[in-house]
Amino acid sequence: GRTAILDALQPLEELHKRQDGGNDDDDDNEAVIIGGTGAMYVMAKLPDGMDDQELANDLVEKYGVAIIPGSFCGYPGWIRVCYSNLPPEECVIAAGRLKDGIRHLCGGVDDDKK
């Protein structure tokens, strides 16, 4: 479950690198994805200017996957993705939807999803 979710969030790391002009020298050392290996969720930082509540609503409505806006947990501009209580096969399906949604909604990679 965790591996599939981390893969689904990879486009956010790519978007942050683009925002930083491709600079790998992360001067502020701020992680884009946080969450220990023992946790049942991860937090992911959205690109600058992205509304976490709007993204959460769009992911549910357009991709059928639910996440928690970080602002509900005291982290505006982040999302919280919980992967507990999901059978592995359902987690892989949800992770695929999440990845597609992030790519499309965050301006990463266009797809045919409407």
UniProtKB/TrEMBL annotation:
It comes from the Eukaryota. This is Aminotransferase class I/classII large domain-containing protein. GO terms for molecular function: pyridoxal phosphate binding. Transmembrane segments: none annotated. Residues 33-98 form the Aminotransferase class I/classII large domain. Pfam families: Aminotran_1_2. Coiled coil: none annotated. The lineage of its organism: Eukaryota, Sar, Stramenopiles, Ochrophyta, Bacillariophyta.
